[in-house]
Design brief:
The complex is a heterodimer. Chain A is an alpha/beta fold. In chain A, the strands form 2 sheets. A 7-stranded mixed beta sheet of chain A has the order 3-4-2-1-5-6-7, with helices on both faces. In chain B, strands 7, 8, 9, 10, 11 and 12 form a 6-stranded antiparallel beta sheet that branches. A 4-stranded antiparallel beta sheet of chain B has the order 1-6-2-3, with helices on one face. Chain B contains 12 helices and 18 strands. Classes of the chains: A alpha/beta, B alpha+beta. Chains A and B meet through helix 4, helix 5 and helix 8 of A and strand 7, strand 8, helix 4, strand 10 and helix 8 of B.
Chain lengths: 292, 382
């Protein structure tokens, strides 16, 4: 198996007619993902290289049975499009768009959780999800990855590729690679994805890649201690980054930690997660744990 | 975007939160005129985006015109931890009976707004949180329902507000929550929130951070912030829509995606190199944006070598390569470059660079190899 996207995926894309939206949608289809439709209210009835374009999410779901949404529309409209997809009954909503106001994300997350508890959001500001050999939804350059037993979850897009690539060079393949995004209110946290990997037969090793700020890594560490039996390898970016420039005192209180890379690595190591200091080291540790 | 105190108070005023009358000025003469108009005593307050203004001599009480002149003269131009005071805020002095603390911010863990209140104000709130956490109320609010009056009253009571100002504190919390929502804040903090001897509740300070991503719907706030004290290269980067943070080393760094760039800084440091900057060119970078980004990096004279570390997803490596070729045509850089391209259209990108045969540009196959090489080249060029 894999998690979240695979052979069952029926993907529809909001923002399919834009430059980036069409480029990556067609890339996803070329990879083998079942792309069933797209949305642009102004271009309903047209098609993008054979992919039908609909006016809204309700029509798209009714006509195609789409079960996965990818959101590519500009920041001012992205949260509304995701909300509409949830109302139309889409179970998995992957938001690629970068630059969405934090309050929009906050309202979207809470509204979907309250009104559509079965719906899962991944992102915003994320690279999407790749299940090698099955489906690619998003902007992850799939040619670097092959099928295998390592599940990867990461807050950063390009760092996901870097770590995935290091693992590939060491001979590893992936069950799924999930980018959860680096925004203040991610729809899915490390914990949500790690739980899925823990229950996925194909995944034997979990790699989580975090970065400075917030306390998602610390929360994940506590969760791993209680609930995860599979080995986890960690990575944290930002050991040498200068101290945060924007957040005031109040931010540090909320997280209950400084949000530094050192604090996060320490929290993970305290529960037995080995943390690589570079992406290359992550692959070396993975080798030591499961070999090839 | 972090706001200066007087800008934060302007936002507070917009939403009915009581603040003292005052005026922001940039010259001694204007400061004296403002003080005369407001009436003595006044407080002369340095407007800088850094804590510890009082200890640094940036906040002074003036009883008359002579003192107002003296303080304004001393404070304007003062260097507070690297921030030069260019603006002072002249405000009617307040009599203080009690000092409280109030804040609204995003609780990333709970994914909800967080309202904080304490009757222990005026001091560092971390100290309260650490030593007497029971005196700091921290309540999450359902963002779909908003902060109710009942809840605000309850927070004021539990936080230890004096019985006779519980209504006034609740009003202030409701107004602060409105500021946070309506102005798209990440943080809206008042320390201290004071009670005057005649039992008025008032914001004596303001610490507000606005969400840059929401600026498109707040055109009236676009001119706020402290651009006069920002690094000139950082300002230019902001205009070009790339994220640049100046550091104190000699290796220019450009990458795509904050995580990869942070990781690049870490790996360069592992090889004993010192990055001169953090530059995230963002996703979907086209050639022109890459050229501009390289110009930004080279505008720092400390740069002795440059590392481009690209793993293309939404970014296409051929666009990056074209941008680099164009940058060499325009800028004719003399420092060595190390370029690592992987990901979307990497084969095309590497081919463009190979064909262009740019002087002193070295291709690297891995991130570690690139970091090791650029550190070596920077040392040779130092």
């Amino acid at each position: 198996m894999s998690i979240l996207v695979g052979n069952e995926t029926k993907l529809a894309v909001a923002g399919i007619t834009g430059r980036e939206g069409s480029f990556h949608t067609l890339n996803n289809r070329k990879y083998g993902t079942n792309v069933v439709g797209g949305i642009n209210p102004k271009k309903a009835g047209e098609n993008v290289e054979g992919i039908p374009v609909f006016a809204n999410w309700a029509d798209t779901v009714a006509e195609t049975g789409a079960n996965t949404a990818m959101i590519f529309v500009p920041p001012p409209f992205a949260a509304a499009s995701a909300q509409e997809a949830a109302e139309a009954g889409v179970e998995l909503i992957i938001i690629i768009t970068e630059g969405i106001p934090a309050h929009d994300e906050l309202k979207l997350y809470n509204k979907v959780k309250r009104d559509h508890p079965g719906t899962r959001i991944v992102g915003p500001n994320c690279p999407g999800i790749l299940s090698p050999g099955k489906a690619n939804v998003g902007i992850i350059p799939a040619s670097f990855f092959k099928e295998g037993n390592v599940g990867v979850v990461s807050r950063s897009g390009t760092l996901t590729y870097q770590i995935g690539n290091e693992l590939a060079q060491a001979g590893f393949g992936n069950s799924s690679i999930v980018g959860i995004g680096g925004d203040p209110v991610p729809g899915s946290s490390f914990i949500d994805i790690i739980e899925l990997f823990e229950n996925d037969d194909q995944t034997e090793l979990i790699v989580m890649s975090g970065e400075i700020g917030g306390d998602a890594e610390e929360q994940a560490a506590a969760y791993i201690k209680e609930h995860v039996t599979k080995p986890v390898v960690g990575y944290i970016a930002g050991f040498t980054a200068p101290e945060g420039k924007t957040m005031g005192h109040a931010g540090a209180i909320v997280s209950g930690s400084a949000g530094t890379a050192a604090a996060k690595a320490e929290a993970l190591e305290a529960v037995g997660v080995r943390v690589g200091r570079t992406p290359t080291q992550v692959a070396q540790i993975a080798m030591e744990i499961v070999g090839k | 975007m972090d706001l200066l105190e007087h800008q934060g108070k302007q936002l507070f005023g917009r939403h009915g939160l009581a603040v003292s009358d005052g005026k922001a000025v940039t010259t001694v003469e204007d400061a004296v005129a403002a003080a005369n108009e407001i009436g003595y005593p006044v407080v002369v307050k340095a407007q800088v985006l850094i804590g510890g203004r009082g200890k640094a001599g940036g906040v002074k009480l003036a009883a008359d015109e002579a003192e107002a002149r003296e303080h304004a003269t001393n404070i304007l131009g003062l260097d507070i931890k690297g921030h030069i005071v260019r603006t002072v805020w002249i405000e009617a002095a307040s009599d203080i009976a009690t000092e409280y603390y109030a804040a609204v911010l995003l609780d990333r863990g709970a994914k909800k707004p967080l309202v904080m209140f304490s009757s222990e104000g005026g001091i560092e709130i971390e100290t309260v949180a650490e030593e007497t956490p029971e005196k700091l109320v921290r309540d999450n609010v359902d963002p779909l329902e908003g902060l109710t009056r009942e809840h605000a009253l309850d927070i004021a009571k539990r936080g230890g507000a004096d019985e006779d100002v519980i209504e006034g504190v609740a009003d202030a919390l409701l107004a602060l929550y409105e500021v946070w929502i309506e102005e798209d804040c990440s943080l809206a903090e008042i320390n201290p929130l004071i009670v005057t001897p005649d039992r008025q509740v008032k914001a004596l300070d303001a610490k507000v951070t606005l969400d840059d991503n929401a600026m498109f719907r707040h055109k009236e706030n676009a001119e706020l912030g402290d651009s006069a004290n920002a690094d000139p290269i950082e300002l230019k980067a902001h205009e070009q829509d790339v994220i640049y943070v100046k550091l104190d080393g000699d290796i220019g760094i450009m990458g795509n995606g904050a995580g990869l760039v942070m990781s690049t800084l870490d790996v360069v440091a592992q090889y004993d190199g010192k990055p001169a900057n953090f530059l995230d060119a963002g996703g979907g970078s086209d050639a022109a944006k890459v050229t501009q980004a390289i110009e930004l990096i080279l505008s720092n004279p400390a740069v002795k070598a440059v590392l481009l570390n690209i793993f293309g997803g939404i970014t296409r490596c051929d666009e990056v390569a074209k941008g680099l070729v164009e940058a060499f045509a325009q800028l004719k850089p003399t420092v060595p470059f190390v370029v690592r391209l992987d990901g979307t259209n990497d084969v095309e990108g590497r081919k463009i660079l190979e064909d262009a045969a740019l002087p002193n540009v070295h291709a690297a196959k891995t991130m570690d190899g690139a970091a090791e090489l650029v550190v070596k080249l920077a040392k040779e060029n130092a």
